[in-house]
Amino acid sequence: MNNVDLRSCGIISLILGVKVDTYDLPVGSFPNGIMVDKKGFVWIVGSNSNLYKFDSRLDKIDSVYFIGDKELKPKGSIMGWAIIQDNDGVIWISQSGSNPLWRFDPIDEKFTSYLTSAAPFQMKLDEKNGNIWFTTLGGNTIGVIQKVIQHNSETDYKITEFEVGNDSFPSGLFLENDNVWVAEVVGNKLVQFKIIDDSDTISIEKTFEISNEYKIDVHSPTDIFVADNKIWFTEHGTSTISQYSLDTNQVKRFPTSANLFNATTLPFWLKESQNNGLWINE
User: Fold this and answer.
1) I need a labelling partner for 195 at 20 to 30 A (CA). Which of 6, 183, 209, 220 fits?
2) How far is CA 246 from the centre of its chain?
3) Could you tell me if 257 and 225 are in contact, meaning their C-beta atoms sit under 8 angstroms apart?
4) CA–CA separation, 123 vs 224, rounded Å?
5) Do the Cβ atoms of 12 and 20 come closer than 8 Å?
6) Model confidence pLDDT, tens digit, residues 79-88
7) Which domains are present in the chain?
8) Residue 213, phi then psi, degrees to nearest 5
9) What residues form DSSP beta bridges with 202?
10) Spatial contact of 94 and 123, defined as CB atoms under 8 Å apart
């Protein structure tokens, strides 16, 4: 890390009620996707085709990996979006402007690319079976990655995508029991799909929808969270966090901006905290 300019990019660790720590990353990294693995290391992707492994205990970058082949680096704009660790400890990364989906094994430190209709925008792990569900904002699909053990005992992965409608632009998703909920940011919908798992084949069936068509106004929802028969969602365009009650069919809205028109904070993702609260980014 000698002679590296660390002035413009960083990641933040927030310990509620205690302190906020800020850590520098190299200029041009523009950190976007972030996760903490099972060993406590922080993994970050951004706009420079690098995957960073950060050790917050030592306050330094532990390793930097170039995603893919440096000789074949795309010339256009690149941005890493979602990053997640599966049940085997393998890391999955989505990247726009390049191959859309990458698998990284921290043991052998090798990348493998996979094809999807567009770069996954958000990914969620179903810890019960190890499947990874994702949305493709530009592909108008939701999809699932399944681990498959072949007859020769080698591991492979099966990727299945489901179209959810032209110009729907699915953004956030949430797994609840045998359902996957999806926020459609341009379609202005919150949709519940039942997951039908028939051995090696997975399909989905739409079972519920919240939208203007059903007399419930939804404004550019970007993420979704479901608990206690209530659906929480961010409304990016109106800068509100909203709650839909499945019991009463009513919506409550909570502005995240002090601006008269609620148009300055633009909340995006939702994340459950350990004390049953919700974190949002703006």
Assistant:
1) 220
2) 25
3) no
4) 13
5) yes
6) 888 999 999 9
7) 1-115 (2.130.10.10), 124-282 (2.130.10.10)
8) -60, -30
9) 197
10) yes
User: How far apart are alpha carbons 182 and 131 in whole angstroms?
Assistant: 16
Query: What is the C-alpha separation between 110 and 280, in angstroms, rounded?
Result: 33
Q: Residue 103 in contact with residue 109, Cβ under 8 Å?
A: no
Residues 6+ apart with CB under 8 A from 24: 6, 7, 9, 10
Cα 102 from Cα 77, distance rounded (Å): 17
- Average pLDDT rounded to a whole number, residues 7-28: 61
- Rounded mean pLDDT, 165-174: 93
Range with the lowest mean pLDDT among 63-72, 98-107, 167-176, 258-267? 258-267
Helical residues (DSSP H) of 93-178, grouped into ranges? none
The 10s digit of each residue's pLDDT in 210-236 is 998 878 889 999 999 999 999 999 998
Cα gap 179→206, rounded to integer Å? 10
87: left (phi over 0), alpha (psi -120 to 50) or beta: alpha
59's torsion region: left (phi>0), alpha (psi -120 to 50) or beta? Answer: left
Q: Is the pLDDT of residue 97 over 50?
A: yes
Q: Which residues pair with 198 in a beta bridge?
A: 201
- Which pLDDT tens digit goes with each residue over 121-130? 999 999 999 9
Q: Which residue has 């974190």 as its token pair?
A: 279
Local structure of residue 109 (DSSP, 8 states)? T
Enter the tokens of residue 73.
């680096």
Quick one: tokens of 4?
């590296």
In terms of phi and psi (left: phi > 0; alpha: psi -120 to 50; beta: otherwise), the region of 207 is alpha
193: part of which helix (H) or strand (E)? strand 189-198
